Amino acid sequence: MIAEEHNAKNREYRGIGTGSGIAMAKAVIVHRGEAVIPVITLEPEKIEQEIARFRESLFISREQLLKIRATVAKTMGEEAAGVIDAQLMLLSDPFLVDETEKLIKLKRVNAEHALDTVIQGAIESLGESKDPTFQDRVHDLNDIRSRIISNLLGLKGQTIPMPEEESILVISHLAPSETAQLFGSKYVGLVTEIGGFTSHIAIMSRTMNLPAVLGVENATEDIKRGEKVIVNSMKGIVIVNPDEETEKSYNKLKSIYIKRRKLIEKYIPKKAVTPDGHKVSVGANMELPEEVPMAKHFGADGIGLFRTELLYMKSDKLPSEDEQFEVYKNIASQIKPDSAIIRTFDVGGDKFAGILTHHHYEPNPFLGWRAIRIGLEYPEILKTQICAILRASNFGNLKIMFPMISLPEELKRARELVEECKDILRERGEKFNEKIEVGIMVEVPSAAILSRKLAEMCDFMSIGTNDLIQYTLAADRGNPRVAHIYQSYQPAVLKLIKMTIDSAHLEGRWAGLCGEFAGYVLAVPLLLGMGLDEFSVVPARVPLVKTIINHFPYSEARVMAEEVMQFTTEEEVISYLSERVKEFLPKEIIEFEVID
């Protein structure tokens, strides 16, 4: 974040862009106040009464959330209402409830303090992980803590002021119920201090097509009420007190965006086919079953990546086979006849620290014990998940994908576990898809280099560019000191992508790509020319990718890809692609996406 004097022109702040488009209006600032949590030592005879009071607060909180969910479902649709389910699940989470009641009994403390202690412990545990998905779940825990404690204390929840003119809301954070209040209001944009790309705020803002930038530090202090604010959700930029020239520039950009949106909406019902007849698939990335309707709304060809990490975050207990089965069955039933690729858990050992006795702190978890490595060392955990996916495959077209494969022997053992799970289900008399496809994520350079051998051993390969770039260039994109080395268009990375696609095709397999790179305007025709079979992006990005593919001849894309393979720097690649795409793509797409 860059912040200058409060009254200065063009003060720029950066965060995580979500929602859709650009907004410009005056700011409404909401400051949060924290409830003071009392610490009371109970007399022994008061303990059962305190537990009853705690359970009553859970009941009231559930009734409140169910009412909110019904309202959101009616006004915004089921996919938006679904994000509230995460908090409803927390209200009945055995760990949260049992540990709080245990603390009330053992420590003889009041419910407010006991709950606060339990949730704070869970938050600190999640905070040890660098995974942004886990960080987003911290916000759910904070929200549910505030709701329950407010009900215990008899406090009324803070309401969001509703302006009479178009405004930008600037606030530290929003609960799902508060985010829902923005729908149909005069708020045309949102800036928060807390929140990530997978948070409920992000999901709901995308559903509402509300431009939002999340995670902007000190926004409520640095931005003043009534200041004009520009929210550019496409680039994650907030500009405060813009000068006349900046206003004109953003008004022009907003006009281009409106034209662009009208253009790409035409391609929602269409297939991704180039002008010269080459067909590819465009799937959606997601992590909640409630996002499936959103993917279908935007015209996705199935689910190219379903992340399962959230199932392992709810408590210190591993999700059961039945619990996972219900989730995967839900997805399979909703998305059929299209397919859904279920990625097995891709988390670090820190998540299992409370369960696995041999886990130790790792200074660099991204290069350590995570994902498939944990699953192969503790096969019963992985087999539970595989059995659940196999059972759910009887209700739709599911595929299994293993992440973080770096060696052929890892894939060999993972496939053996799939066969063991099939034997288990046969003995139980359970039905499943005997020919279920099994694939891998190619996100480690060794997997790309050995992709020909790995392709022999699996049914498909999906390239995870977010990690592949980091591992290839040894640069953490979250570290500002080396972020400039994290280059999506670096030829070394592009050659590994091309090598993987070629290897898959030589073995008669298909290749997909499910990183952010699959949705970049310059990258789409390049990947098309490399021969990529499936693009998988966030649901709202699907129509844009389909629009680009429908405008770009496959023959020209192939020529372009061959030329790019001769370059040695990212600058050369971007310069070349920027000129070539102008020959085929509508100016609304290029001007809005390519020009900074």
Structure, described:
The mean pLDDT is 89. With 596 residues, this protein is α/β, with parallel strands linked by helices. It folds into three domains: 11-31 and 162-242, Glucose Oxidase, domain 1, CATH 3.50.30.10; 44-153, Enzyme I, Chain A, domain 2 (Orthogonal Bundle), CATH 1.10.274.10; 272-593, Phosphoenolpyruvate-binding domains (TIM Barrel, Alpha-Beta Barrel). 47% of the residues lie in helices and 13% in strands. The longest helix is centred in the N-terminal third of the chain and has 30 residues, at 47-76. The chain is globular and about 80 Å long.
Secondary-structure topology with pairs:
Blueprint: E1 11-14, E2 16-18, E3 22-30, H1 47-76, H2 78-81, H3 85-91, H4 94-107, H5 111-127, H6 132-153, E4 167-171, H7 176-181, E5 187-192, H8 200-208, E6 212-214, H9 219-222, E7 228-232, E8 237-240, H10 244-265, E9 281-286, H11 292-297, E10 303-307, H12 321-335, E11 339-343, H13 372-377, H14 379-392, E12 397-402, H15 408-428, E13 438-442, H16 445-449, H17 451-456, E14 460-463, H18 465-473, H19 491-506, E15 510-513, H20 523-530, E16 534-537, H21 542-551, H22 554-564, H23 570-581, H24 587-593
Parallel strand pairs: 3-4, 4-5, 5-6, 9-10, 9-16, 10-11, 11-12, 12-13, 13-14, 14-15, 15-16
Antiparallel strand pairs: 1-8, 2-6, 3-7, 7-8
Helix pairs in contact: 1-3, 1-6, 3-6, 4-5, 5-6, 10-24, 12-14, 14-15, 20-22
